[in-house]
Amino acid sequence: EPIDLYIAAMEGLYGRLAVAVPEPTRLAQIYNNLHPQLQDRLALCSIQTLEQLRSMGRRAEAGRLSMVRIRPATTRENTLEPDLAYHDQNHPRKPLSGRVASVQS
């Protein structure tokens, strides 16, 4: 779930308690229950408030989502430099035809 929804849900739960929980305690508990990838990205930031956690968490999520959207080239043979093309680890490489895609003199 997005970090905004998670923080809002946790704040709602804290709001139901009879005793108010200090923000540093809430911050630590919310941070420790984040997705490990978000914790890894946020570890480099100095986060003192829930608003900072929300803001930095949005940025970290945006970075993670942009990494998920990366798609390799469709065919290795059609790339300019086939030897430098992305190779899926799950599929073996096909031998190249030996043709040169471009030549610079």
From TrEMBL:
Domain of life: Eukaryota
Region Disordered, annotated ranges: 73-105
Name assigned to this protein: Uncharacterized protein
